[in-house]
Amino acid sequence: MATVDSSLVAELPMFAGFSGEELAEILREARSSRYPRNSEVFSQGDDAHSFFLLLHGHVRASKTTPTGEQVVMRYVSPGEIFGVAPAMGLKQYPATATAVDDSVALVWPSAAWPRLVAKFPVLATNTLQAVGSRLQESFTRVVEMSTEQVEQRVAHALVRLARQSGRQVERGTEIDFPISRQDIAQMTGTTLHTVSRILSGWEQAGLIESSRQRIVLCEPEKIHALAEQASGDDD
Amino acid sequence: MATVDSSLVAELPMFAGFSGEELAEILREARSSRYPRNSEVFSQGDDAHSFFLLLHGHVRASKTTPTGEQVVMRYVSPGEIFGVAPAMGLKQYPATATAVDDSVALVWPSAAWPRLVAKFPVLATNTLQAVGSRLQESFTRVVEMSTEQVEQRVAHALVRLARQSGRQVERGTEIDFPISRQDIAQMTGTTLHTVSRILSGWEQAGLIESSRQRIVLCEPEKIHALAEQASGDDD
DNA sequence: GCGGAAGTTTGCGCTGGCGCAACCCATCCC
DNA sequence: GGGATGGGTTGCGCCAGCGCAAACTTCCGC
After folding, report:
1. How distant, in Å, are the alpha carbons of B118, B172, B215 from that of B177?
2. What is the DSSP letter of B214?
3. What's the CA–C1' distance between A151 and D15, in Å?
């Protein structure tokens, strides 16, 4: 079934250094699967039966604490791998993956991983780089949570979302999938109330425009400035 | 040079699945180097010329923000690799590594990495697992910073340090390297003042015993209980 | 078109823990 | 032994942002 447009997939950093032939062999082991909006791809604690490559849509990875709070770890964009627990030697998924938009992903059974890596060692190297850059992102997040105030963190989150999944629209850059105040709160370690207040403020200042689960950055540079250092820089 | 006691090194998860012969070949490319207490192994932003395996001592990895604040990312224990930026495709070190104790490490030049991986692909797989588990730790930290109060985070940090580098002493479990209030503050996203207050409180309650850069956990279970859920659970 | 559910906004009071400042104590070095 | 340096402790005032509560809006299913 995975007669996927391998032309597109071939461009991904994940598959850098593979011939068309090799790529085809790898893709042959995958099937592609649809995930309607708000459906779960997998759930934290599930047996890690598969790993994924997102083709269309957006997937949110979030962790639930023992006390039931949710924390959003990242949003996956098309072209990225996710659910790579098997490659890292984990037996269960450490987070829950939810499609926030109608999504399509390539799905490999976990059992395929050792086989593929044995045959194509560079796959491990590429995955290592992907995981490495995710580690850097996570470190950045720890640093932000340790040293920045809430407003600054929210600014950082929006800048990142816009860069990763921004779409140019009439009035600026729109975040290309439905995202609630609650989601942003769970990305920045605050409450939806505080996020709402902050966004209201920015909207009044003309920095953004927002409605239900939708945010447009009208003045990306100003948001960026807010992210870079809290006080002192507004004109 | 590195006629290191390969018997010891051979036990490490990093080198799982290697024959003595192969291991020797890998070790032959490394030299071992001493780092006296408080010396820097490498500095954030430095050209990533080498990667390391810690043999003795303890190394602190920390990041400095543009505004000059420091955040401690992790403490490296003997047997762990660190400074693996080259393997993740980074040109510069993303953090500063400081020996907090007199330390000894194996040092490979970055140039050796592609060569070694080409010859021993399983090296990439093992590194992927090491980096993967570090990613999990980092995620855990983000979750903690998002959902827990300071006291709980400090408790978590101590529990982790004790597990990772605890040494049994007369009165309990001692953290096996010099660590200041400031360090703990930079691990948990708070100030040394608040850490000092918390530790004072615990000391009065008999949970710990501490002095200059030294902490002994006398009642590990109680600290653990504090870490797991803030209010309601003490016997 | 009419509920109802889900997301958002806003007001208000309270508090965890930060910032500042002063002081104490141990270690090290001359 | 005396000064200096680098931790550590503690008191006090303040405020960012949380928690709670209530109202509003948009969307959706029936």
Report:
1. 37, 15, 9
2. E
3. 15
B197: CB within 7 A of chain D nucleic strand: yes
Number of H helices and number of E strands within chain A?
A: 8, 12
List the domains of chain B with CATH numbers. Answer: 6-144 (2.60.120.10), 148-228 (1.10.10.10)
Are the C-beta atoms of residues B131 and A131 closer than 8 Å to each other? yes
d(CA A64, CA A16): 34
pLDDT category of residue A99 using cuts at 50, 70 and 90: very high
Alpha helices for A70-215 (secondary structure H) = 112-119, 122-147, 150-165, 181-188, 192-204
Instruction: Point out the nucleotide closest to B150 (alpha carbon to C1′).
Output: C17
What whole-number distance in Å separates Cα of residue B228 and Cα of residue B38?
Answer: 33
Percent of chain B with pLDDT over 90: 87
The 10s digit of each residue's pLDDT in B213-230 is 999 999 999 999 999 875
Which nucleotides of strand D lie under 7 Å from a protein CB?
A: 7-11, 16-21, 26-27
